[in-house]
TrEMBL record:
It comes from the Bacteria. SUPFAM superfamilies: FAD-binding/transporter-associated domain-like, FAD-linked oxidases, C-terminal domain. This is FAD-binding oxidoreductase. The lineage of its organism: Bacteria, Pseudomonadati, Pseudomonadota, Alphaproteobacteria, Acetobacterales. Keywords: FAD, Flavoprotein.
Length: 473
């Protein structure tokens, strides 16, 4: 057992009760490894407060004892952002029991949800009220509101609705000294000093723990069309996006790029993995159109743009979903990419972004550079071409030892990042920094930018007790 003072554990146990603290090794295990199995940490206990008031008391007790804390939501981080280190002293704070939707207002178009509300549950509550909570991505059935705000998650509909930051109007946060800042305001306009809420979104729990948020809702779509298209090359994919955007920008809800390699992995490894294209080829895009107008004419729009692109030689083949089931099946091809890659073998994942106009060059140049680095490597780029965020993933060469391939992870990431930097992009688009990428911060954000971040951290959390070892080098 790490060197934790028994009086602190006794006080925490008395405060939280038997439901609120876990100490048995079997109970702790699910909280100690990240989704990608990059890290496995140790902890003396997992704290599970049932309210903001309980969490505030937990933080006060731990602050007085100099006890570091690691917040955890759905534990879907791709960068090890919610896992304690191997030292065994950091306590995990699970926000899972803060899982109430406190309020929903279809007139204000807002929802006030606690940090532990699962994203899919928030979507369902909004739908029942005749509204839409548009944040959507593969892990939405596990990820929580607190987690997606702490990482400023993006997802599939960013091109239309923005990242998590754009979907947040107000926050409730427990600060490092145990104070509760109640900024749960439903205001669209509020220029009253510094916008503190934006400090905590994307901070990954290093400045305080988000306990609730006011979220923006939107009108529920009444028409939806989804198509899967084989395109000539990366440039043709971007040209197709521009055609849809120029025809009706408000109709484009998602525009996703996939490589033929990734689509092939899906067809091979995912049960029932059907691809409704005669020849998917090397480049595939998913187009999702949606409108709240019942007479939006999206089918005619989809067909007209695809016909233009077919005549121009940009689209080689296309399939339009004829039912909700078919539309969901097309989306499944995109969503199952990570699982298909996992079943194929070892892969190195890159979450990068460039200006939208540079996405074809990113895919082409990064793929070529990685092939030169490791002959036989298989690029599997996919992701949100409509907002410039491509997951530039690289699969091990056939027959190569997985451990030997993963040992080259740093070289592969540096190779991709060299292209990203040259194109004016970012090495962290939507997954955050966590523990995985802290060593890159000095190189990418050094100087005045990193100094300001460090000053903010020192001012708000001077003893570094909030999610230590994450974000900042």
């Amino acid at each position: 057992m790490p060197d934790i003072q028994p009086p602190l554990l006794d006080r925490l146990s008395a405060l939280l009760g038997p439901r609120g603290i876990l100490t048995d090794p079997a109970d702790l295990a699910p909280y100690l490894s990240d989704w990608r199995m990059l890290y496995t940490g140790r902890t003396p206990c997992v704290l599970r407060p049932g309210s903001t008031a309980e969490l505030a008391e937990v933080v006060k007790l731990c602050a007085a004892a100099g006890q570091p804390l690691v917040p955890q939501g759905g534990n879907t981080s791709m960068v090890g952002g919610a896992i304690p280190d191997e030292g065994g002293r950091q306590m995990v704070v699970s926000l899972a029991r803060l899982n109430r939707v406190r309020d929903i207002d279809p007139l204000d178009m807002t929802m006030t949800a606690e940090a532990g509300v699962v994203v899919k549950a928030a979507q369902d509550v909004a739908m029942e009220a005749g509204c839409l909570f548009p944040l959507s991505f593969g892990g939405e059935g596990t990820a929580t509101i607190g987690g997606v705000l702490s990482t400023n998650a993006g997802g599939n509909t960013t091109v239309r609705y923005g990242n998590a930051r754009e979907l947040m109007l107000g926050l409730e946060v427990v600060l490092p000294d145990g104070q509760v800042w109640n900024g749960l305001r439903r205001l669209r306009k509020d220029n009253t000093g510094y916008a503190l809420r934006h400090l905590f979104v994307g901070a990954e729990g290093t400045l305080g723990f988000i306990t609730a948020a006011v979220l923006r809702l939107f009108a529920r779509p009444r028409e939806n069309e989804v198509a899967l298209c084989a395109v000539r090359d990366e440039e043709a994919a971007l040209s197709l996006f521009r055609r849809f955007r120029d025809r009706d920008e408000t109709a484009v809800r998602a525009f996703e790029y996939m490589s033929g390699t990734g689509v092939g992995f899906y067809a091979r490894f995912i049960e029932g993995g059907q691809v409704p294209l005669a020849e998917p080829g090397d480049h595939v895009v998913l187009v999702d159109l949606a409108s709240s107008r019942p007479d939006a004419g999206l089918r005619a729009l989809m067909e007209a743009v695809l016909e233009e692109a077919l005549e121009a030689g940009e689209v080689l083949d296309a399939a339009i979903g004829e039912s909700e089931a078919q539309r969901a099946a097309i989306w499944r091809i995109r969503e199952e990419h990570p699982e298909a890659q996992k079943r194929e073998g070892a892969s190195v994942k890159n979450d990068v972004s460039v200006p939208v106009s540079k996405t074809p060059e990113l895919i082409r140049r990064a793929s070529e550079a990685c092939r030169r680095l490791i002959p036989g490597i298989r690029p599997v780029p996919f992701g949100h071409m409509g907002d410039g965020n491509i997951h530039m993933n690289l699969q091990q060469p056939p027959g190569m030892d997985p451990a030997a391939f993963l040992a080259r992870s740093h070289d592969i990431m540096e190779t991709v990042n060299a292209v990203v930097r040259d194109l004016g992009g970012s090495f962290s688009a939507e997954h955050g920094i966590g523990r995985l990428k802290t060593d890159m911060m000095e190189d990418w954000r050094g100087g005045a930018e990193l100094e300001v971040m460090q000053r903010i951290k020192a001012a708000i959390d001077p003893r570094g007790l909030m999610n230590p070892g994450k974000v900042l080098p």
